[in-house]
Specification:
Blueprint lengths: L1 H13 L18 E2 L2 E2 L2 E2 L4 H7 L4 E4 L3 E5 L7 E5 L5 E7 L20 H8 L3 E7 L4 E7 L6 E8 L4 E9 L4 H4 L6
């Protein structure tokens, strides 16, 4: 177990391995969420650059943000805010009817326990806050190299299970920062 956790943490931290956010690969089923994005789609990437690496990318325009649709990546939500004009968020939710496992950061999936989360990320995992009124606790893993992005995990404090994983820019996470990305 320790060797698997160490390998997952090393791949997430260094961007190595076929399933890391940096490596990408052409098969979306192998992409894993990371602090910098998912697959070849990096946070901050503009639509033109994204389409050059994902020719099938479609963008649906909405009032405050746009939804990015990648064929074969149905259970991942991708958004770009109009103010940023670039990929702002990639997330996995337990409430998604099409949830497909295998995209969780470092091998940690929605539905896994907070214990598994802590074992996988160790000291890199930072507790952010516990909001008792909604029974949620928030943890983050910051991206390496000083980028202002992170992966945030929302944990249901009632059952100790991960409900949500989101890669995004610091200051733009829904609950803890009070920002609803695409209201």
């Amino acid at each position: 177990m320790f060797a698997i956790a160490l390998a997952a943490l090393t791949a997430l931290a260094t961007g190595s391995g076929p399933q890391s956010a940096a490596a990408g690969g052409s098969d979306p089923s192998t992409w894993r969420l990371g602090p910098s994005g998912i697959g070849p789609l990096q946070l901050g990437m503009n639509p033109a650059k994204a389409r050059s690496v994902i020719p099938g990318l479609r963008i649906a325009h909405h009032r405050f943000c746009d939804t990015w649709i990648v064929p074969g990546l149905d259970s991942i939500s991708l958004f770009s805010t109009h103010s940023r004009g670039a990929l702002s968020s990639a997330s996995i939710s337990a409430f998604d009817e099409d949830l497909q496992p295998g995209h969780g950061a470092g091998g940690v999936e929605v539905g896994d326990s907070v214990h598994e989360l802590k074992q996988t990320f160790g000291k890199r995992l930072r507790f952010i806050e516990n909001i008792r009124s909604v029974r949620k606790a928030f943890y983050r893993v910051l991206s390496p190299g000083g980028r202002q992005t992170a992966i945030e995990f929302t944990v249901n404090t009632g059952n100790g299970r991960i409900e949500y994983e989101q890669a995004g820019f610091l200051g733009e996470f829904y609950y803890t920062d009070g920002t609803e990305l695409c209201a």
